[in-house]
Each structure stands twice: as structure tokens, then as C-alpha cells.
Amino acid sequence: MKKLIALLVVFSLFLFAGLKVLVWYQVNASMTALKDALAKEAIVDWGWIASDLSGTVTISDIHITPFFLKDTLRVDRIQLRFGAPQELLWSSIKSNGLVLPHEYEVEVVGGHLPLANKTLAALVPSDSRYREVSLLSLYGCGEISQVTGRELLSMGYDQIGFSVNYSYSAMDGMFQARGQLEELFEFDLAAKLLPDPLVLDKGMLPGILPLIRNMETTLQDTGYFRHLSFLCGRLHGLSQAEYLRAAVDEWAAKLSHAGINVGSGVSASLLQYADTGSPLTVTLAPMPGTMKLFASLFDDNEPRMSADTIISAFPSLGLHLSTGTAGAMAADIRFDKTQLELFLMTEIEKATYLEALAAEAKKVVPVVEVKGYKPIEISTMAEYLEQKIQVEVVSGKLYEGVLSKVAERGIVVTQYLGGGSFAYPIANEEIALVRVWK
């Protein structure tokens, strides 16, 4: 009996060790595949991989260096929670690489990005159109127009710490995420998604946008605008409230130049969020297919949206902003089609368009003059000898014919009728009006 028990114990240990090896192998295969897929975009490294009997996989000491960012993101650990050991086992044996189950949770713990002067500089849009309205743009801050590492260092930050937790359930289509950028802001998001196996299998965030049925996001400022007001407000001797009002006004003016006119409710909501720290809640309840149209804003492979599409589809987003006392809806944002079309054009397209407008303005439009009897000065009648004229005399009588003679004291109008002609001498003092056929 003792030998049997000992044998079962040894077998259980071997089974547990085999499971651990299998999980490690599959997670390592998934991470290696991810590393290879990102080889042209970033360098990805990790320290060790562990799993436990609760159905949790932990990947520790992750380093990600995106080439465009030129700085290294460091994460203490990423935990994938499968909910049960059998889910973890089943996911491990399905294919060469870890496949996420119908329900899972991902937690990113202890992330941080050390700051240097050029940190985030690569995120500044190269296109001047989008720099004007970019989320990384600064408004009302003098010559400082973009947030980069230099500005964050000037605000008193030495690194950006972050943590994120998100989960997905295929059974009810719920996607939830919450996280924070330390001393910048916190967010809490809940979205109802259309079922899609790509979200389930990849466990990736970028693919969820077209699948949103409804979404609610709450943002809470935890220090960013206080630091920003100190940096920019002191340039002009403005208090926090004065600076933020000037910044929101400048932002609204630049949006208006791009053809996007925001109402007072939008400005009031953003100002209250930035100045008082009130939570800002953003909700979307899009009509079916609407989010797919807006996917091009986040994916260069999608067809570019036209001004007509944006204007017609925007009300279907069901957008609503609210803070403690202020709120706004999609109807509070209006568009100027001409300005928006110009904003969406590339620099080359805009130059071509403006050149075409200038050329059109310079075109001489030929005027087709309709022939008829037109008034002339009586003193110029000699210029119209042998031309058809009408002469109205002071008595009201009208003579029509050919001006056959112009003399010092009068004129002669000849009418040709059938085979003959009649000449009508008219004294100058009797002439009231002369018209010439031309």
C-alpha cells in the first residue's frame, strides 16, 4: 500500500512537472512568436515564466524597446489568469503557442518608462495638420507646443509609471479595462462587444474598435493638469484656472480651423475635468457599422474617411460627455465641410486644390451679348451712318430705319419697304432718344 501511495505521489509530481514544462514551453513559444512578429518594430525580451495550480501564468522582467520610441518600457510582470487549471491545460495543448480561453484576465504590473529629453518625441505627428489637434499638443503654452520628455521633466516627472488590468468574456461580450499612469491620470473602461474570435484568440486591444456595441470610459486626472498649469501658466503669469481656460479656447479655435466646431458644453466638460479634477465620463452607443467607418483613424491600411462620411456618421456614434455639472452630446459638435475637406487633404493634395481654385478664379468668362436696340448719345450719331436705328421724337412718335444722313441741323432716317423707300428728315431739336441696333 505504501508503495502504491508513493508511486501515486511520484506520478502526481511528474504530472505536475510535465504540466509546468508544457505551459512554460507554450508560453515561451507564444512570446517568441510575438518577438519575431515585432522584430521590425521593437526589441522584446523577458526574464522568466511561471505558472501555478490556480490557472495563472506569470511572465516577469519584460523589456520592450520600440524603435520609433527609442526608449525602453520595463514591466515587472504580466499575469494571465485563465480561471481554472483545466482551462490553462486545454489552452496549452491546443496548438503551438498559448491560445486564450473564452474568459481571461490580463494584468500588467509595475510598468515604467524612464524619461529623457526626447522621450515621446517620436509620437509627435509629422503631419502639421494633426499636430494642431493632437492629444500630445500643448495649448496656450507659448513656444512649447508638444508634450515630450523634456516637458514632462520640466513638470517634475522623472519617469512614467503605469499599470493596466483588462479582461474579456466571450459569453457576454464584456471587455473591461482599468489602469493608471502614475500622477497623470486613471481610467476605467467597460465595453460591450460583438462576438469575434480574433479578439478571443489574440487577446489584443487594437482589434476591438469596430466591435463596440456600447462603451463607457471614466477618466480621472491625478496631477497632469496641475503640473501642466504650473509649467505653462507661469510663462504668462496665469493661475491654473486662467491658463486652462486659455488652453481650452485655443484648442477649440484650432479645431474650428480644421472644420470641427465644438459647443460650449464640450469646452465646459473638459475645463471642469482639467481644473477641478472631476471625473470625465465618455459614453458611446454607436449604430451598427459606425465604428468600422472610423477604424481608418487608427489603421493606415483602412480607406481614408471623407468629410462627407465623417459628417454623416458622427451623429451615429451616440457620443456623450459628462462631468459633475457639465455635459455635451454629439449634437454639440458641428462640422464645416469645406474646412474639414481641406484639413483631411495631404499637403500635396491641398496645394493642388488651391492652385486649381486660383486658376479658376483667373479664367475670363466670355460674355455673350444679345443683339438689340441700345441707346446712344445723340452727339455720336455720325458714327452710326448706314446702321439700323430707332429715333423717338419729343411728340412720342417712333421712326425706325437706316440712318442715311447726319447734318448740322438734323438727320435723315430712311425706311425700305418692298421695292421702295421713304426718307424722314428729323430736326435735331425734335430728337428725344436714339437707339442703334448692335
How would you describe the overall organization of this protein?
The termini are far apart. This protein has 438 residues and is α+β, with helices and mostly antiparallel strands. The protein has helices at 2-37, 85-93, 128-133, 149-155, 197-202, 224-236, 240-257, 264-276, 290-293, 307-313, 337-344, 347-362, and strands at 42-45, 48-51, 56-66, 73-81, 103-114, 159-169, 174-181, 185-193, 212-221, 260-262, 280-284, 320-322, 327-329, 333-335, 373-376, 388-393, 398-406, 410-417, 420-427, 431-437.
Note the main attributes of this structure.
single chain; 438 residues; alpha+beta; SH3 type barrels; twelve-stranded antiparallel sheet; six-stranded antiparallel sheet; 12 helices; 20 strands; 33% helix; disordered N terminus
Number of helices: 12
pLDDT under 50 segments (min length 5)? 2-17, 199-206
How confident is the prediction overall: mean pLDDT?
Answer: 79
Total beta-strand segments: 20
Which strand-content bin applies to the residues? 25-35%
Helix content: 25-40%
Rg over CA atoms: 39 Å
Shape: elongated
Class computed from helices, strands and strand pairing: alpha+beta
Largest beta sheet, briefly? 12 strands, antiparallel
The rounded distance between the terminal residues' Cα atoms is 129 Å
Summarize the structure.
The chain is an alpha+beta fold and 438 residues long.
Topology:
Blueprint: H1 2-37, E1 42-45, E2 48-51, E3 56-66, E4 73-81, H2 85-93, E5 103-114, H3 128-133, H4 149-155, E6 159-169, E7 174-181, E8 185-193, H5 197-202, E9 212-221, H6 224-236, H7 240-257, E10 260-262, H8 264-276, E11 280-284, H9 290-293, H10 307-313, E12 320-322, E13 327-329, E14 333-335, H11 337-344, H12 347-362, E15 373-376, E16 388-393, E17 398-406, E18 410-417, E19 420-427, E20 431-437
Antiparallel strand pairs: 1-3, 2-3, 3-4, 4-5, 5-6, 6-7, 7-8, 8-9, 9-11, 10-14, 11-12, 12-13, 15-20, 16-17, 16-20, 17-18, 18-19
Helix pairs in contact: 1-2, 6-7, 7-8
